[in-house]
Amino acid sequence: MDYTPYFATLRKTSLLRGMTDAELAALMASLAPRVRRYDKGELLLMAGYETKEVGMILEGEITATKPMPDGTPVTMARIGPGGVFADVLAGGRSKSPVNVTAASPCLVLYLPCAALLRPGGEPNAAQWKLLQNWLETISSKYFALDRRLELLCCKSLRGRIGLWLLEQREQTGSDTFTITMTRAELAAYLNCDRSALSRELGRMQEDSLIELFRSTFKLPDPDRLANECC
Questions:
Q1: Where would I find the H helices in 82-213?
Q2: What whole-number distance in Å separates Cα of residue 31 and Cα of residue 19?
Q3: Which tens digits make up the pLDDT trace of 152-192?
Q4: Considering all CA atoms of the chain, what is the largest pairwise distance in Å, rounded to the nearest integer?
Q5: Which domain holds residue 108?
Q6: For a designed S-S bond to 23, which of 19, 77, 138, 189 qualifies (C-beta 3.0 to 4.6 A apart)?
Q7: DSSP code of residue 68
Q8: Of 123, 144, 165, which marks where a domain is finished?
Q9: How would you list the strands of the sheet with 99-102, edge to edge?
Q10: Could you tell me how many helices (H) and strands (E) the chain has, helices first?
Q11: Does residue 117 register a pLDDT over 80?
Q12: Are residues 104 and 178 in the same domain?
């Protein structure tokens, strides 16, 4: 397969950022990744199973949902082109805590973990860069988990919403951003009822803490919002 048309997307991933076309071409040749297309609703990875591959989204979107004891799925993430999944799982023996499903028709590239950890011959510059990026990605996900715990420990719904919105602002680098989660998915993520979420968002808009249009949020005064989360 010719991976060249996807080099720009691959460079968006946390594992391959900062790589030149030559380095990406060398990696694709040495790692021999597999590529697979999925239809909407098709399962990529099932909770309770191991994986030895790191997945990268080239086209479309996937969702990672955690099945709760009562059977309710909680959306943990929605990932589009340039997103990565199973990067933490693939290097160990842990089983996936989430179901990964195609939210739309998608194309996924899989890097074999064995080739990442035990490259044939002397590792080249691109392979060293990939390993460094991999470690940084795992570290970032650890701190993201810490922020998630902080969010869930917040007693008020307004506080949880505020912390989540401020995190989105930090990730996008803008006071105005559009989210990919549906209102139901966001309610499940924030551990609240959908109607309660809608009511609180309405109150926050009335209090001029947010401006909301469909899935687009604007934070007029982030510092004031941060104070509301305390």
A1: 113-117, 125-153, 157-172, 183-189, 194-206
A2: 15
A3: 788 899 999 999 999 899 889 999 999 988 898 899 888 88
A4: 63
A5: 4-144
A6: 19
A7: P
A8: 144
A9: 43-45, 99-102, 62-67, 73-79
A10: 8, 11
A11: no
A12: no
